[in-house]
Amino acid sequence: MMGQGPQKPGEHQLKRAWVFLKPLVGRYAWRLVFGFLCLAVVDLLQLWIPRVMKHAVDGVSTGEDSGWLAVRVAQIVVLALIIAVLRYFWRYFLLGFSRLLEKDIRRTMLAHVLTLDRTALHGRSPGDILALSGNDLASVQLAAGMGLVAFVDAIFMSLAALAFMAALHGTLTAVAVAPLPFLALATRSLSGRLHARFVKVQEKFSELTECARTTLTSIRLFKAYNQEESQTARFDALGRAYVHHNLRAAIVEGTLFPFAGLVSNASVLLVLYFGGLLTMHQALTAGDFVAFMAYLHLLTWPMMAFGWVANLFQRGLTSLQRIQELLADRAALEDPPRPVRLPTAPFTLQLHGCTFAYPAMETPALQDCSVTLTPGITGLVGPTGAGKSTLCAILTRLYPVPRGAYTVNGCDVNDLGIADLRSLMAYVPQEGVLFSDTVAANIAFGKPDATLEEIQAVARAAVIHDEIVAMASGYETRLGEKGVRLSGGQRQRIALARALLLDRPILIIDDALSAVDTETEQRILKELAKRCQGKTCLIISHRIAQLADAHRLLVMDNGRIVDSGSHHDLLQRNPFYRTIHQHQTRMSCAR
Ligand SMILES: Nc1ncnc2c1ncn2[C@@H]1O[C@H](COP(=O)(O)OP(=O)(O)OP(=O)(O)O)[C@@H](O)[C@H]1O
């Protein structure tokens, strides 16, 4: 479940971030070693240049010849060339490291989200998860890339520059660093505020992403309801809120960065004045003074960088905390420590007075529900909202159930491995979900090594083969967002073919033929009757007449099974069943 929201990063959060990052950093340690080695050499060479300049200036003042000066210039050119090459390498190693880290965290996030069940995902919108893997991960990458580089560089460069400056004149160095404590104080006091504002920025980005996702996935609906303008206005309002919170963060950021510049300029001013006086009184040579100023110039970047790095780390830590909260979400369903062996076919599934409420819902969707599904076809009917899809979700083990509430061949499902139990089942949900892939790949989703013959056989059973063959590229036709759009009935039949290909001993079909015409549905049900011999099959349908040949029929209402029997029995005694049947018969006669 979602946590309390990221807290201000203290020592505990830093430790938590490090525990998470340590193995990932260890994986690419050699990159870091080579990268920082190149960076250190670049810094040392940069620090060497002022020394060459000092000799050049002192040489000029003591009347050395032009050939001697040319040698100094050539030395600086060679140093600059080496610096350029090594800069390429540190970028390659260190920025490459941050990209690899980003890839690994993204992979960990996706793998983790796939382990979560519906209960764990209830508090998060897809937009929230997309924002974590987009904006938040980008902040972490920036902190681990440029942030880390700038931090190490700033420390190394400032210490080395200070050492070189101290070697030239100790007191002048002390004067130059006098304004630095102000920078440290400002960074410390502003970083807490910055953190709180970044948290808000990332939350707003999640909302914006979710709004964009819903808009893009439901464009037709918005058009049909003439909601384009109001949805654009909603998106605009969220966009404005996002900008507003970004600006609030920018106010703090915008204070820190110029303040660092101000501190460094104060140092330059102090050195210019006191260094100038020392040179005038010949306590410092002109060359020393030029070199000192050059070192101070090299120190300016690290001072500015501390403010910038503080921002990057703040953002990175805030985002990493948000990502870690997702990674801390745990599935409510857990495998038993020692799963018992799966029972063997044929299978009898039983719910024993099972009560189930969706997270955060007060009224249970299943109320003391008892049902027994034996081998053969069981038909399930019931008014809308009766709990039929919830029953499917429980049977396919998408939600946890208490001990003793659900057994398979007498064995409590809490003692069975979740994946083991699901490997016995093929499930066709109400909405025919298709992926952006070929028809063949969509059908072979659960069995990627299926032959074309196997795929065609199940497509024939789902009465969709002829329509697939008539498509431009047959089974190789691409479907989904970037491919062919199919009708609701075609989608449902491809989804059914996908489940049939698995050929599993338990088949659950949740009103998955609702968009198929009655004649085609009848043909499909005949095929199913042939294929389901010896299997335990539950078919939910709103069309009662289609289920008349099922071995047993169940009627569900208010979260429980309220009647069961043959078509004939139910017609005799169940008023709901009789009314619906009469209504549907009249409708089909009228047609
Ligand atoms: N994910 C969910 N979160 C909260 N409540 C839900 C959720 N899914 C269903 N419900 C509620 O549970 C009850 C049973 O819903 P369910 O979808 O199981 O009914 P159904 O019989 O399949 O309906 P239909 O025939 O319309 O598909 C309804 O009151 C519904 O509002």
Strand and helix map with partners:
Layout: H1 11-27, H2 29-61, H3 66-115, H4 118-121, H5 126-168, H6 170-177, H7 180-217, H8 219-224, H9 228-280, H10 286-328, E1 349-356, E2 366-373, E3 376-381, H11 388-395, E4 406-408, E5 411-412, H12 418-422, E6 425-428, H13 439-443, H14 452-461, H15 465-469, H16 488-502, E7 506-510, H17 518-531, E8 536-540, E9 552-557, E10 560-565, H18 567-573, H19 575-590
Parallel strand pairs: 3-8, 3-9, 6-7, 7-8
Antiparallel strand pairs: 1-2, 1-4, 4-5, 9-10
The structure holds adenosine-5'-triphosphate.
Residues 358, 361, 365, 382, 384-390 line the site of adenosine-5'-triphosphate.
Write up this protein.
With about 600 residues, the protein is an alpha/beta fold. The chain folds into two domains: about 15-330, Up-down Bundle (ABC transporter transmembrane region fold), CATH 1.20.1560.10; about 350-590, 3-Layer(aba) Sandwich (Rossmann fold). It contains 19 helices and ten strands. The protein has helices at about 10-25, 30-60, 65-115, 120, 125-170, 170-175, 180-215, 220-225, 230-280, 285-330, 390-395, 420, 440-445, 450-460, 465-470, 490-500, 520-530, 565-575, 575-590, and strands at about 350-355, 365-375, 375-380, 405-410, 410, 425-430, 505-510, 535-540, 550-555, 560-565. The chain has a six-stranded mixed sheet, sandwiched between helices. A four-stranded antiparallel sheet has the order 2-1-4-5, with helices on one face. A hairpin with a 2-residue loop joins strand 4 and strand 5. The radius of gyration is 35 Å and the shape is elongated. The two termini are about 50 Å apart. The model is unreliable at about 1-5 (pLDDT under 50). Bound molecules: adenosine-5'-triphosphate (ATP). This is ATP-binding cassette subfamily B protein. Its main location: membrane.
